[in-house]
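ok, trying the design again with the full structure, not the truncated one.
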């Protein structure tokens, strides 16, 4: 007697669903009072990431409140950088900062590729605990796409133009490529360990794809993403769906079919109907509500959600935002998003 496959997993596999599943990127976070309470208790953001019981609690918070169709393990894309030897900290109001940014061959050579379970056991312990806690709700594991982690590791933190990261790419592409390969190597191992611990879906976050020219995206970012997906696929078999989220890929839209994933998560600038038209009927799309629309309240949120659901047509679509939810988002907007999805009729 087995329960029905959850609609999120069905949708990721392209199977027919009763309605589009819904979850939100960065759904555990500061827009929730209960997250801020745990965050205060934990100390620093990294302390929170390293405490499985608290990671389980904050992962569960949005599931309890909104009954989303999927959960995502609470961690950060910078945890693998820390495992590789980057000196990662989080500065309130500034985001991730790296004390030893990589600027030369010695920096690249110094990076290590440890066994993930030894380097950051708390990530995998969180996943094991979550699978018990979550019941039927599927759990997504994630890593950064190599290009996006490269940006933070070279730049040393968030930045407007990523001048150091782009200077290495253009000035010393061989070194940039070597760094990307090192990130692929550890990132793939980390993702495989997440799945072996119990994550049922893998999402790669390529936030900084938006910085690259068309040619450089195809030369550097896309092959590195596919190398991660290939290694993970070889290790975990065909049943685990892969999601690729990238920001700013409307220019390379016709090439996104080359990404070896099951679900393409698109940002809000891309028209979802146009993405469907360009990419064909087989691809599953995720997204693509403008996270800023939620700031305007439940009514605009419901209207934008309705428009996306109508354009996507109810199948081969996972309702989500086009980027992470913002800290100032009203709870009522998230409720309106969920309600619109649950009431939608073809
Ligand atoms: O629900 C979830 O999605 C939780 C897990 C999660 C976090 N970060 C927790 C977090 C995930 C999937 C991420 C991904 C992430 N982290 C990305 C890719 C997605 C994106 O939004 O582009 C990136 C680029 C990062 C790096 C990062 N971590 C930044 C730039 C920041 C600071 C900006 C910010 O939002 O504050 C973080 C910190 C961070 N990661 C927070 C959370 C909940 C907020 C920190 C806090 O509580 O003080």
């Amino acid at each position: 007697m087995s329960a029905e496959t959850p609609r999120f997993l069905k949708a990721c596999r392209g199977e027919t669903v009763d309605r589009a599943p819904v979850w939100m990127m960065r759904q555990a976070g500061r827009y929730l009072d209960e997250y801020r309470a745990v965050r205060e208790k934990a100390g620093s953001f990294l302390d929170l990431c390293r405490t499985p019981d608290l990671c389980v609690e904050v992962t569960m918070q949005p599931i309890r409140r909104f009954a989303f169709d999927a959960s995502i393990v609470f961690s950060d894309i910078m945890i693998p950088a820390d495992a590789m030897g980057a000196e990662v900290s989080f500065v309130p109001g500034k985001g991730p900062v790296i004390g030893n940014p990589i600027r030369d061959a010695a920096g690249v050579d110094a990076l290590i590729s440890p066994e993930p379970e030894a380097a950051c056991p708390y990530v995998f312990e969180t996943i094991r605990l979550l699978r018990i806690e979550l019941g039927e709700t599927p759990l997504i594991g994630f890593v950064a796409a190599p290009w996006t982690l490269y940006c933070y590791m070279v730049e040393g933190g968030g930045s407007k133009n990523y001048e150091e990261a782009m200077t290495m790419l253009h000035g010393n592409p061989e070194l940039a490529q070597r760094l990307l390969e090192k990130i692929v190597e550890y990132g793939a191992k980390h993702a495989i360990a997440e799945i072996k611990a119990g994550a049922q879906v893998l999402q790669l976050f390529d936030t900084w794809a938006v910085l690259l020219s068309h040619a450089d995206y195809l030369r550097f970012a896309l092959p590195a993403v596919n190398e991660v997906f290939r290694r993970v696929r070889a290790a975990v078999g065909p049943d685990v769906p892969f999601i690729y989220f990238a920001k700013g890929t409307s220019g390379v839209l016709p090439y996104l079919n080359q990404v070896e994933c099951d679900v393409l998560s698109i940002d809000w600038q891309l028209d979802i109907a146009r993405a469907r038209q360009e990419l064909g009927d087989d691809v599953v799309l995720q997204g693509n509500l403008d996270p800023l629309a939620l700031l305007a309240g439940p009514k605009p949120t419901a209207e934008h959600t309705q428009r996306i659901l109508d354009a996507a047509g109810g199948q081969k679509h996972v309702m989500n935002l086009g980027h992470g939810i913002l800290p100032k988002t009203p709870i009522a907007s998230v409720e309106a998003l969920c309600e619109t999805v649950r009431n939608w009729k073809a």
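Keeping the full-length input from now on. The beta strands are 71-72, 88-91, 95-98, 139-144, 201-206, 242-246, 263-265, 284-289, 317-321.
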